[in-house]
Amino acid sequence: MAGAERRKNRKTKRGENTLEREEENKPGNIDVDNIDQRPHWFTVLWTKLFNITNWIVIGLLIVMIISDGTLIRIVDFVFGTQLFRRFYMTQQPPPSGPPDPSQLEEEIKNFKPTILNKLDMNEIYLYNKLLQPQEISNDLSRESSVRIFLIDDFLTELECDGLVKAHHHHVDEMSKESPILCFDSIDTLHKHLKDIDKEHLVKLCNDIEVFTTGTHCLNSSFSAELTNSMHHQWSYSTAFYLGESRFSHSFGKRVYEATGLMASNGGKFQITSYPEGVGYKTHTDCTLNTEKRDRFATILVYLDDVEEGGETNFPKLGISIKPKKAQALVWTNMDEDGNCDPMSIHEASKVQVGKKYILQRWFYYENFYSLGRRQKEPDIPERSPGQGYVSCDAYDHGSCRWYDEWGYDHIVDYVAMKHKLH
Ligand SMILES: O=C(O)CCC(=O)C(=O)O
Ligand SMILES: [Fe+2]
């Protein structure tokens, strides 16, 4: 009863107030109290301007905070997101193409190397699909500095197929002429000649000055003869460089987001195909010395499945990976101090049935001026523009690989100045 009374009173009060307000607002009434309080026009203008300036300043501050990434960094810190890295740390890709000689000296002098010494694996989205790196480790690998990860669907079907097609097209174009054959030593050449059991070639090779002066490469006619006898028992590698395709940029960015491997420390992009019966020798991607301008990590993407064989094996770690289309394999070759880890030794086992295709890019511990740029070809040995070359090393299987560009290792001059490149 008391409650109902209170409600009624409140209603009445509200009613009175409304009536009072209506009374005040009647057109003929003048609000005497407010006449003197009405601000001067200048004050009104000043207040308005002040408000606008305020908003501009606040707006500018917000823009500054956002563009500088501070706000995003705070969000990252609080929520553990990776927004700053994703949107702000876009890598400055090294300029592609041959450097301009007039500016070369200055550019080299001003070049500041970047050190890359760890992987920073992250989940990323690729066309709305979440890609999750998965670490492959066992007791053996945990004892070493080598880290190995797999990422499914790192390339799209279209990208895989497109790369394979481009690779084939290039190899076909360059296979119209037989390649120049190069060997890491005369002993290796002899070993290969013995393998193919060509007595007359062995004799020929003893009779003539086999290597073109200043190189470990055979001249064109000897190369052609040997090529026929070796039945193309080699893998084929074609290379492209950053800026030579739109894919190179998007791949570089994708790799950086998923692994922390910066484009600035990346070398060439290499596609390799292995015919049936071919693999690749056991090797480390870095050289076992103290050189820091060396391959810290490798990303390898399988561009197709392989029916049988063709695994990537890490024999010292007891790890073997079967090729799976679009899957990326990422591993480190050097430790955090830049020492090449012998435990990273790996090989491509022979393809038993089918064909194998991979895309690889190497990332260097310490980058250098010419890294990732297409090099000027040396003058020797002479080679026509559409001619590939094959490089053979002294290993039991898969020791030969065809390249569409010069492997400078086989040029004696280059061997002498290797790693002293800018
Ligand atoms: O084909 C593979 O699985 C490995 C290739 C490789 O290690 C290389 O080319 O350096
Ligand atoms: Fe390798």
TrEMBL record:
Gene3D superfamilies: q2cbj1_9rhob like domain. It holds the Pfam family 2OG-FeII_Oxy_3. GO terms for cellular component: endoplasmic reticulum. Keywords: Dioxygenase, Iron, Membrane, Metal-binding, Oxidoreductase, Transmembrane, Transmembrane helix, Vitamin C. Residues 14-26 have a biased composition (Basic and acidic residues). Residues 1-32 are annotated as: Disordered. The chain crosses the membrane at residues 55-79. PANTHER family: FE2OG DIOXYGENASE DOMAIN-CONTAINING PROTEIN, PROLYL 4-HYDROXYLASE ALPHA SUBUNIT. This is Uncharacterized protein. It comes from Owenia fusiformis.
